[in-house]
Design a protein that fits this description.
The protein is an alpha+beta fold. Helix content is about 30%, strand content about 25%. A five-stranded mixed beta sheet has the order 1-2-3-4-5, sandwiched between helices.
Length: about 160
């Protein structure tokens, strides 16, 4: 059953709730969160960025249920601005209740307001629940320009 949530752009006063959500996501991924002061510094930097946006979903009682982090950028390959969804996280007890979908749909609206023509994201291939959500919302990893070949994400630490 869908859960009625409010989704809005996170502000400085949301940092404490965001710290819990980001730690929850890191722990879910098997990553040890940084010390509290360092995580707070990172979140404050993120919230002050002109190229990043964090959305927070709250239940009617104000409890934070999830977040989405989105980055905006330009490229020489496209005439319009693009967006990249960095993270989507919903607390376990709210999963399967359309909270993630509402966060992503709000990200679409925010991106359109900034003149974005395309939104990208990556996810773990084992994240079946996430992949179903993204595909249901119109995301695809095939690219017509490459004869339908899949787009793969590579990374390297420097």
């Amino acid at each position: 059953m869908p859960l009625a949530v409010s989704v809005g752009t996170a502000k400085a006063e949301d940092v404490d709730d965001l710290m819990l959500l980001y730690c929850g996501f890191m722990e879910h991924e098997g990553v040890r969160p940084p010390p509290e002061a360092e995580l707070r510094r990172r979140l404050e930097r993120l919230l002050g960025s002109e190229t990043d946006e964090v959305l927070i979903a709250r239940a009617p009682d104000g409890i934070a249920l999830g977040y989405l982090q989105q980055r905006y950028f330009y490229s020489v390959w496209r005439p319009e601005r693009d967006a990249f969804i960095e993270d989507v996280f919903v607390v376990e007890e709210a999963r399967g209740r359309r909270v993630g979908a509402q966060l992503v749909e709000a990200a679409f609206e925010c991106a359109q307001a900034r003149g974005v023509a395309r939104i990208c994201l990556d996810t773990n291939e084992n994240n079946e629940r996430g992949r179903r959500l993204y595909e249901r919302l119109g995301f695809a990893n095939g690219n017509a320009a490459w004869g339908g070949a899949r787009q793969l994400f590579y990374s390297r630490l420097l």
